[in-house]
Amino acid sequence: MGRAAKPAKPRARSAGAAPRPRRRAVARRARPPRPALLTRGEVVRAVVELANKLAPADVGDLLVVESPIRERAARLAGVPGQSLRAQLDLALLCLKDHAAGRCPQIPYYAISLLAAGVAYLADQLDFVPDFLPRIGMIDDALVMAVACDLGRGGLERYCVWKGITPPFARRAQRPAAVRDRRRRRASTGS
Fold first, then answer.
1. pTM above 0.70, yes or no
2. Cα distance between residue 178 and residue 114, in whole Å
3. Is there a domain that residue 5 lies in?
4. Residues 73 and 170: beta-carbon distance below 8 Å
5. pLDDT band at 173, cuts 50/70/90?
6. Of 67, 14, 187, 47, nearest to 127 (Cα)?
7. Contact between 154 and 116 (Cβ < 8 Å)
8. What is the pLDDT of residues 95-122, one digit of tens each?
9. Is residue 55 scored above 70 in pLDDT?
10. Helix/strand/coil (H/E/C) assignment for every residue in 46-73
């Protein structure tokens, strides 16, 4: 039989000792994770719903407002802004060729997804309002990235036909270049 552990007795303080400050219990507790404001599933659903509402003539209407769309995309700085602008350039190039009838081999599903991403950029009503500093354009970049990801097969087909490297292919090649650079540094001892 095991012996039961006795509860610890509080130590008696000496008469002149100051009381010890208590540690905050809150500091030890782990904070529960905050729920995401916007999940990928919600963005995918929104992009697909918007793509299902677009008609072929809407692609031409989007191309008319290309300049304001590019100006809005230019507001986002940093890596997300660069990705957004690269994806927007590719999407607009593809939509222009589609509207002109130059690339009929691209599935309309991919075209409608790209048009949905561009239409979201053109729309003033967003998940996150654009006037908020630093975060206002993040949802636009996210929607464009999801639209390009969902229409990736059509975009890859378009890029092969056009003879260009898609932005998502450049991003995938970067880690290999970093690994090669690290190997060279390790072999030279620097």
1. no
2. 31
3. no
4. no
5. very low
6. 47
7. no
8. 999 999 998 888 999 999 999 999 998 8
9. yes
10. HHHHHHHHCCHHHHHHHHHCHHHHHHHH
Question: Could you tell me the two tokens for 124?
Answer: 């003033």
Summary mean pLDDT of the chain? 79
Q: What is the pLDDT of residue 91?
A: 94
**Total count of domains within the chain:** 1
Residue (of 3, 162, 27, 135) closest to 76 by Cα position: 135
Q: What's the rounded Cα separation, in Å, for the pair 30 and 185? A: 40
> Which has more pLDDT, 12 or 80?
80
Say if residues 167 and 87 touch (Cβ distance below 8 Å). yes
**Length of the chain as a residue count:** 190
Helices (H), 16-133: 25-28, 40-53, 56-64, 66-74, 78-99, 108-122
Q: Is residue 6 part of a domain?
A: no
- Residue listed under structure tokens 């908020």: 132
Q: What is the residue type of 52?
A: N
Above 90 in pLDDT, residue 188?
Answer: no
Residue 13 lies in a domain: no
List the domain range (segments joined by +) for residue 127. 40-182
Domain-embedded: residue 33? no
**What's the token pair of residue 59?**
């692609």
Fill in the amino acid letter for 187.
S
